[in-house]
Q: What sequence folds into this?
């Protein structure tokens, strides 16, 4: 029977540990602070940012929610600059995608590396590629954390990373390049995915195609990391077909796999940043 | 017969084109400026930096050679900051490795992204990973340029990138991830290189092991990119065994392949930076 990499249960444990860390920091006079920046009027994004805020507060993190419904690159840049300088704020999370017309690269490039707890800036991604210290994107941390909690080895494995986003697949490949393993990358429309999947020990997929990875594509004992979020009404489906689970040694379910981990990883980076900034 | 990707001949053409571009810029009142920064007393590095300076001057680029034989992180940082502000300087090349005891990440992180013509800073590497505009490291540009000049397709190929340096193999993989192709990476001590090499359409190798890639490892028609520099006295040998050339459709020789291209690519980035900074 394959091991189910339970993101929900793992999140519970991580949040408990983080709560204790925040308490310990408070006792030394440090309250981790997270600024959440949202642009535009997308309701789904607004709901998600409010959920991040609520979770942060549930473990004692100080939060600020800056919602710029209508804004310009200059105003957004000025806000980020101000937050970079604010000693109460240890982490800055800018919700992507930005509202239409705003320059995403310019915005994320303004975030100070030491406060880039969501791992969005070029500086962070470059450090990740170099194998230097940084706060990796939550999706990367979620996968690394599940491997750690379930005692799965990363080393000597051959990974196939399918997808090409700047917040998950590309940084994941950059992260893996600094481990003792092989990583093969493939874009979402690559025609070679089936043959590449057959030889992979671990497959991470993020292409938003429901049940794309099927049992016949994968080898016996594979570890399947499913980052798909394909909504049909209120139901969500992954990029991995459940038929493939039977051949897997471990897999992340959808829902309940990597998804629930994301906010906890953002908060952990915030607590780390607070600890680093205060030297406590 | 395989195509020899002749870096020396290609460099000649590139330098000629660059000379014409520098002349055109001069006529509009812009002289591209390159600052060369060397730390420590290593003679080989000093010779290489002087060669860069000479080549730059040969096509009309203004140069400054800052040789800090004994220095500190603070002094080096202050020099880079000053060069960042200097309007005569469009590109800053800091020779790596730095003298012992100096903080390399700190130094390269100080270079302004718009003057990072050697592609060393985390910001540049992050942009490369994101597929955003930047000045890629010379080694990456050399490979891309040889492909272009010889009309070789990058797309739909499966690349194997063997090596793990921050100035070539990791940025090359980051660059390739943004193309429509598959890239597999392997560190220098990876035990799986022979089996991975067998299925690769293109192999880039940078592990400093003389003649490591042999004919029996590669498939018929492979393109071999050899970044090895294994010196034996005054002779230099690549990481690819010449026996493998016969199975290749194209290859870079050592010497005379990617090596001679490196300075020209640095100078091209400098000319580009001058053009971008002056809006000419």
A:
């Amino acid at each position: 029977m394959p091991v189910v990499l339970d993101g929900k249960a793992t999140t519970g444990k991580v949040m408990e540990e983080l709560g204790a860390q925040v308490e310990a920091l408070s006792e030394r006079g440090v309250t981790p602070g997270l600024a959440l920046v949202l642009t535009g009027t997308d309701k789904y994004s607004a709901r998600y940012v409010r959920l991040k805020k609520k979770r942060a507060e549930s473990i004692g993190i100080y939060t600020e929610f800056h919602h710029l419904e209508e804004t310009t690159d200059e105003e957004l840049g000025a806000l980020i600059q101000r937050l970079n300088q604010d000693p109460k704020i240890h982490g800055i999370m800018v919700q992507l995608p930005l509202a239409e017309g705003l320059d995403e690269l310019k915005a994320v490039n303004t975030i100070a590396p030491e406060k880039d707890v969501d791992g969005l800036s070029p500086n962070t991604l470059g450090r990740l590629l170099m194998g230097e210290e940084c706060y990796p994107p939550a999706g990367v941390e979620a996968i690394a954390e599940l491997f750690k909690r379930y005692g799965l080895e990363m080393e000597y494995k051959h990974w196939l990373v399918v997808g090409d986003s700047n917040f998950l697949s590309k940084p994941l490949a950059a992260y893996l390049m600094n481990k003792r393993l092989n990583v093969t990358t493939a874009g979402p429309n690559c025609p070679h995915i089936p043959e590449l999947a057959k030889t992979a020990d671990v497959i991470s997929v993020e292409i938003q195609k429901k049940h794309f990875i099927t049992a016949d594509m994968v080898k016996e004992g594979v570890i399947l990391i499913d980052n798909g979020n394909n909504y049909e009404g209120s139901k969500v489906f992954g990029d991995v077909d459940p038929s493939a689970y039977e051949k897997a040694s471990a897999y992340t379910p959808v829902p309940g796999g990597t998804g629930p981990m994301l906010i906890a990883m953002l908060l952990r980076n915030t607590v780390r940043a607070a600890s680093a900034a205060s030297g406590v």
